[in-house]
Amino acid sequence: MKGTTILHNPPGFETFELAHRIEQGQHHFEVTYGSSFSELYYDFTPQSFRTSADHQELIHQLGRAGLAWLPQVLEQLATGSVQYTTAQLMSLANGSSAG
What we know:
Elements: E1 4-8, E2 17-23, E3 26-33, E4 40-44, H1 46-49, H2 55-64, H3 70-79, H4 86-96
């Protein structure tokens, strides 16, 4: 992964990782999960998330990882209504997956 890992192996989803980076002023997220034989990897921006062919699959997997709030944050980032730092996203991710 190119970004900073903000969530790794949350409880109940031992093969999941979420990373975040900012490139040329744009947020990028990376999600990977699965076994070494069938690992899935996604690299998306808030704007491309909603138009992705795998949109529903990503929403499902984010929910499994305790990140059901992330699609709303992505929508806010896509519209420019809020801004988050990697540290703020990490805090949100770790707080939501703790229990």
